[in-house]
Design a protein that fits this description.
This protein is mostly helical. It is built from 3 helices and no strands. 58% of the residues lie in helices and 0% in strands.
Amino acid sequence: MPVRCDALPHSTPQRSRTGPEIGALALRFSGSAPTLVSGLSGSAPHVGIAVGSWTAGMALSSPLGQAGPPLVGTVAAALTLVP
């Protein structure tokens, strides 16, 4: 029996991963450029995904091989602890 496409979980509309609170907070402090701030706050997670993917790819192609991405992740997690 074929699976209905509308019954799959990915067929439902998806919310922003950052949530509406971040966008509302950004718009509150946007001043005279609300459109620019709205666009930047919406695209920032995509930039982070692109930079993270690029960094992982560079780590994979380094002499560290498959140990590179976990090492990069560990360093990134440790950097979040630096004030």
